[in-house]
């Protein structure tokens, strides 16, 4: 699992001193390799013990272990793509069109790779079982998450599953009011804090519906309150290159969920895909 992406995903839940440390490392990963613990603490206007606590939050025993792990990660990234931009680097007015395209390519490819490498297969399998055994799948996202929800609804409908995607909170809440324990809700929020998503989550849980969250923030309210959570590994940027990558990472998780569900009824799935393909081809041939 990427240390840099893990730090980014934890930022919203960190206390102020730890957040300053995390923000500096995300912006300048090499600072850990170039600074002593005291130098890093001074730059972040905090203390040496605060840096140690930050390291332990990431699962390391201390600063030395973080330096070694981050040096390995940075070296691996450079070896894989020597001329690649820094992951998470934003698009600037000085970039050529080619530079902008390269930054987008690198950000989106890395987001998919890190998301799928870190994907919890046990959670994925359980989520797929929930969807496979459900009476109906309720899908809700806001903004870029709405696009992902619509894509998943389309995929599920092609294999004969009952899936509903809601365009606004009113529609989502009406569906929640009529939801039953056999239903499953899948919710998309990069931050895990989107108010509309949280309102829908709590409404369906009151109706006994099992919930599956797709989010980038492990410690978010959505990740904590949902029955199951599938995490993306993406770093956002001010120019929205990250928001584009977050959508791509969520779509990758949707593809994994779809395949996991489809494999449970392989032959009926193949038949359904063929029948729906033929239906479209016949319409186009008229």
TrEMBL record:
<dbReference type="InterPro" id="IPR000281">
    <property type="entry name" value="HTH_RpiR"/>
</dbReference>
<dbReference type="Pfam" id="PF01380">
    <property type="entry name" value="SIS"/>
</dbReference>
<dbReference type="Pfam" id="PF01418">
    <property type="entry name" value="HTH_6"/>
</dbReference>
<keyword id="KW-0805">Transcription regulation</keyword>
<keyword id="KW-0804">Transcription</keyword>
<dbReference type="GO" id="GO:1901135">
    <property type="term" value="P:carbohydrate derivative metabolic process"/>
</dbReference>
<dbReference type="GO" id="GO:0003677">
    <property type="term" value="F:DNA binding"/>
</dbReference>
<dbReference type="InterPro" id="IPR046348">
    <property type="entry name" value="SIS_dom_sf"/>
</dbReference>
<dbReference type="GO" id="GO:0003700">
    <property type="term" value="F:DNA-binding transcription factor activity"/>
</dbReference>
<keyword id="KW-0238">DNA-binding</keyword>
<dbReference type="GO" id="GO:0097367">
    <property type="term" value="F:carbohydrate derivative binding"/>
</dbReference>
<dbReference type="InterPro" id="IPR035472">
    <property type="entry name" value="RpiR-like_SIS"/>
</dbReference>
<dbReference type="InterPro" id="IPR036388">
    <property type="entry name" value="WH-like_DNA-bd_sf"/>
</dbReference>
<protein>
    <submittedName>
        <fullName>RpiR family transcriptional regulator</fullName>
    </submittedName>
</protein>
<feature type="domain" description="HTH rpiR-type">
    <location>
        <begin position="1"/>
        <end position="77"/>
    </location>
</feature>
<dbReference type="InterPro" id="IPR047640">
    <property type="entry name" value="RpiR-like"/>
</dbReference>
<dbReference type="InterPro" id="IPR001347">
    <property type="entry name" value="SIS_dom"/>
</dbReference>
<feature type="domain" description="SIS">
    <location>
        <begin position="127"/>
        <end position="267"/>
    </location>
</feature>
<dbReference type="InterPro" id="IPR009057">
    <property type="entry name" value="Homeodomain-like_sf"/>
</dbReference>
């Amino acid at each position: 699992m990427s240390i840099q992406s893990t730090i980014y995903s934890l930022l919203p839940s960190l206390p102020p001193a730890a957040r300053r440390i995390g923000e500096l490392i995300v912006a300048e990963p090499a600072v850990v390799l170039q600074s002593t613990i005291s130098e890093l603490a001074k730059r972040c206007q905090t203390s040496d013990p605060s840096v140690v606590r930050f390291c332990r939050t990431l699962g390391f025993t201390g600063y030395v272990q973080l330096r070694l792990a981050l040096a390995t990660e940075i070296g691996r990234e450079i070896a894989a793509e020597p001329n690649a931009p820094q992951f998470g680097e934003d698009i600037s007015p000085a970039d050529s069109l080619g530079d902008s395209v390269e930054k987008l390519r690198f950000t989106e490819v890395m987001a998919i790779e890190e998301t799928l490498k870190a994907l919890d297969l046990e959670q994925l399998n359980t989520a797929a079982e929930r969807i496979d055994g459900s009476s109906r799948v309720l899908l809700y996202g806001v903004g870029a998450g709405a696009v992902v929800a619509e894509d998943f609804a389309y995929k599920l409908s092609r294999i004969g599953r009952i899936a509903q995607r809601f365009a606004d909170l009113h529609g989502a809440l009406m569906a929640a009011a009529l939801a039953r324990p056999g239903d499953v809700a899948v919710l998309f929020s990069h931050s895990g804090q989107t108010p509309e998503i949280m309102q829908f989550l709590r409404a369906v849980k009151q109706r006994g519906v099992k919930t599956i969250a797709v989010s980038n923030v492990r410690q978010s309210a959505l990740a904590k309150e949902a029955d199951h959570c599938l995490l993306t590994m993406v770093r956002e940027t001010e120019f929205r290159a990250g928001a584009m990558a977050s959508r791509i990472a969520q779509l990758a998780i949707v593809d994994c969920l779809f395949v996991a569900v489809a494999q449970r009824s392989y032959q009926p799935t193949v038949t359904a895909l063929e029948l729906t393909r033929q239906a479209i081809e016949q319409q186009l041939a008229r």
